[in-house]
């Protein structure tokens, strides 16, 4: 079996106030993504959201169920999956249909697809499929979303160090989903803040996956309640699980990119509670 997984249980605000650095990282940071020739999952008890990766190198990888965890015959029996490729070109085969997925292109897989396989075009430059999954209760059509299909928002400015392009890939205005929403944000050179003002989604969770960072660079990710903030330093190709009660924003030591994924109560991208910097503690 080429699939590995771990489980993260939900943690409340009261407990986190007493956490030290190691406890914060153990609860919210994911460090084992993008392993060669392996599908790796973190199953979170926030919205039953799963974050993972598939990196086919020497051979193709099959999206397998996890019997002890999911209790289903196949992975998408009761789940939908979102995919964004951050590596070389590759493909995802769903049944008899093959979708070519280039760098920073996305694919939505709906509930009920029994056979899903990941492949790289070139083992020396493998595809790196970043995966999000959420429970699904309706079947929606599989759909590839290329760069030209994304809804792109240009936000921020050089003056506030947060000039960025937000590529809304798997969101309700682009593709129909049950609850999963995903997109890719890339900061311009000289900009470091990924989200400002900071905000929280009390009606859904969010996961930030940081990438395109040099080995000696990092992002300081801020989380916690608006008046009780905490921070975690995040390296390249690592992800932060953000609970519904937590703010999320971050500042890097250089510009970078990140993928955001959400699931929960609704599909409204702007459903957030904002907290200006001068209100944070």
UniProtKB/TrEMBL annotation:
Gene Ontology biological process terms in this record: D-galacturonate catabolic process; D-glucuronate catabolic process; pectin catabolic process
GO molecular function: 4-deoxy-L-threo-5-hexosulose-uronate ketol-isomerase activity; zinc ion binding
EC number(s) recorded for this UniProt protein: 5.3.1.17
Entries under InterPro entries matching the protein: KduI, KduI/IolB_isomerase, KduI_N, RmlC-like_jellyroll, RmlC_Cupin_sf
Cofactor (UniProt): Zn(2+)
Cofactor mode of binding and number, as noted: Binds 1 zinc ion per subunit.
Pathway: Glycan metabolism; pectin degradation; 2-dehydro-3-deoxy-D-gluconate from pectin: step 4/5
Swiss-Prot/TrEMBL catalytic activity: 5-dehydro-4-deoxy-D-glucuronate = 3-deoxy-D-glycero-2,5-hexodiulosonate
Keyword annotations: Isomerase, Metal-binding, Zinc
Similarity comment text for this entry: Belongs to the KduI family.
HAMAP family in alphabetical order: KduI
Functional description taken from the UniProt entry: Catalyzes the isomerization of 5-dehydro-4-deoxy-D-glucuronate to 3-deoxy-D-glycero-2,5-hexodiulosonate.
Name by which UniProt lists this protein: 4-deoxy-L-threo-5-hexosulose-uronate ketol-isomerase
Species, as recorded: Aliiglaciecola lipolytica E3
């Amino acid at each position: 079996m080429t699939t590995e997984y771990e489980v993260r249980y939900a943690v409340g605000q009261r407990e986190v106030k007493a956490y030290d650095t190691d406890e914060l990282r153990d609860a919210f940071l994911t460090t084992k993504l993008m392993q060669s020739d392996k599908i790796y999952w973190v199953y979170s008890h926030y919205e039953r959201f799963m974050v993972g990766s598939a990196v086919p190198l020497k051979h193709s990888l099959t999206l397998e169920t996890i019997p002890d965890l999911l209790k289903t015959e196949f992975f998408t029996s009761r789940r939908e999956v979102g995919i964004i490729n951050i590596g070389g070109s590759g493909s995802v085969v769903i049944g008899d249909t093959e979708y070519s997925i280039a760098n920073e292109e996305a694919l939505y897989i709906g509930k009920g697809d029994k056979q899903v396989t990941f492949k790289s075009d070139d083992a020396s430059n493998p595809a790196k499929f970043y995966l999000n999954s959420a429970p699904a209760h309706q079947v929606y059509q599989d759909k590839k979303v290329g760069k030209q299909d994304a809804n792109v928002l240009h936000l921020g400015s050089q003056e506030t160090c947060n000039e960025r392009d937000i590529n809304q890939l798997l969101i309700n205005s682009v593709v129909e989903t049950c609850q999963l929403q995903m997109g890719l944000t890339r900061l311009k050179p000289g900009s470091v803040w990924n989200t400002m003002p900071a905000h929280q989604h009390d009606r859904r969770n969010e996961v930030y996956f940081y990438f395109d960072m040099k080995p000696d660079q990092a992002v300081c990710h801020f989380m916690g309640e608006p008046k009780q903030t905490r921070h975690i330093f995040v390296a390249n190709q690592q992800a932060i699980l953000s609970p519904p009660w937590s703010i999320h924003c971050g500042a890097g030591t250089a510009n970078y990119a990140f993928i955001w994924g959400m699931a929960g109560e609704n599909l409204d991208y702007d459903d957030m509670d904002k907290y200006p910097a001068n209100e944070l503690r």
